[in-house]
């Protein structure tokens, strides 16, 4: 049996207005659905919500002694990766073998069962005499 809210004299929509200076009140049942990707601890008075933080499992490749040599061979090398609550960002160094370049970064959290791709934007020249470019994602 299906009944619609308006047939019961109820509103079809609820409008809530939030001011930029105040935090919205999020019901616990909504927060509990986010527990898949987070640690959620609730007590009778406090609600603590912590997002998982990613940390690269490698040193920044640009700091390796053979970085320049690898860039010369491969023409494209990851420089560094930064992880934060807002996501993953980083830079890629590309040898300047052509004026037009399209750079994208593909990454995974699931051993490549699925992957994400982020377009990188040109940030500026690098290297001696502009022989390389830096792209940020």
From TrEMBL:
Membrane-spanning ranges: none
Segments forming domain CBM21: 68-137
Pfam families: CBM_21
GO annotations of cellular component type: protein phosphatase type 1 complex
GO terms of biological process kind: regulation of glycogen biosynthetic process
Single GO MF descriptor: protein phosphatase 1 binding
Domain of life: Eukaryota
Record's protein name: SYCP2 protein
Record organism: Crocuta crocuta
Gene: Sycp2
């Amino acid at each position: 049996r299906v009944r619609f809210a308006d047939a019961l004299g109820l509103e079809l929509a609820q409008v809530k207005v939030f001011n930029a200076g105040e935090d919205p009140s999020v019901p616990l049942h909504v927060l509990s659905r986010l527990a898949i990707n987070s640690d959620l601890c609730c007590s009778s008075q406090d609600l603590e919500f912590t997002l998982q933080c990613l940390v690269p499992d490698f040193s920044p490749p640009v700091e390796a002694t053979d970085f320049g040599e690898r860039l010369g061979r491969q023409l494209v090398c990851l420089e560094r990766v930064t992880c934060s609550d807002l996501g993953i960002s980083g830079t890629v160094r590309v040898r300047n073998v052509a004026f037009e370049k399209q750079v994208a970064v593909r990454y995974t959290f699931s051993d490549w069962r699925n992957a994400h791709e982020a377009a990188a934007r040109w940030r500026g020249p690098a290297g001696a005499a502009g022989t390389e470019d830096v792209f940020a994602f």
